[in-house]
Amino acid sequence: MNRMIISIGSNIEPFHHIKVALGKLQNHFEVLSVSSLQTTKPIGIVDQQDFINGAVLATTNEAKKKVNIILKKIENEMGRDRTVPKFGPRNIDLDLLIWNDEVVDDDYHTRPFLQEAVKELQSI
After folding, report:
1. CATH code at 80?
2. Is 39 left (phi over 0), alpha (psi -120 to 50) or beta?
3. Is 107 a catalytic residue?
4. Does residue 102 belong to any structural domain of this protein?
5. Is 50 a catalytic residue?
6. Which of 2, 45, 108, 122 is deepest in the core (most CB within 10 A)?
7. Coil, strand or helix: which one is 52?
8. Catalytic residue selected from 47, 50, 81, 93
9. Which of 50, 80, 82, 105 is catalytic?
10. Which one of the listed residues 82, 90, 105, 106 is annotated catalytic?
11. Helices in the chain by DSSP H: which ranges?
């Protein structure tokens, strides 16, 4: 069984989209816990709504590559617009952060809100 932490964030109807995404994650993985949600300022393109961010602790029998495919599929199902700039607004953003205690997303090292969410979940 693989243990993972997935970041989750949104700045377009964030509470609605995060709730929907959590339901979809539960359809694919065993969700063990969800971190506290934090309001964060946008990075890069600052003329947009603040983001709501958190993380999800889950387990799966799937391989890491398959998990990433599932995360992108969920984003697509939810209407994620991939034509907006990298740091533009988004209805949902799901990224695999930690895979079996290994950091697999470099954003973890530069974004304190991700580190805080992971620390909260790793104490479980």
Report:
1. 3.30.70.560
2. beta
3. no
4. no
5. no
6. 108
7. strand
8. 93
9. 80
10. 90
11. 14-28, 64-77, 112-122
Do the domain assignments include residue 32? yes
Active site residue 47: no
CA-CA-CA-CA torsion sign (41, 35, 11, 8): positive
99 lies in a domain?
Answer: no
pLDDT given for residue 45 in this prediction: 82
Q: Would you say residue 73 lies in a domain?
A: yes
Indicate if 90 belongs to the active site: yes
Q: What is the largest CA-CA distance in the chain?
A: 42
What is the number of structural domains in the chain? 1
Contact 5, 56 (CB under 8 A): yes
First to last CA, the chain: 17
User: Which of the residues 95, 101, 106, 111 is marked catalytic?
Assistant: 95
| Number of helices followed by number of strands (H, E) in the chain | 3, 6
5: containing domain: 1-54+63-90
Burial 89-112 (b: 16+ CB within 10 A, else e): bbbbbbbbbbbeeeebbeebeebe
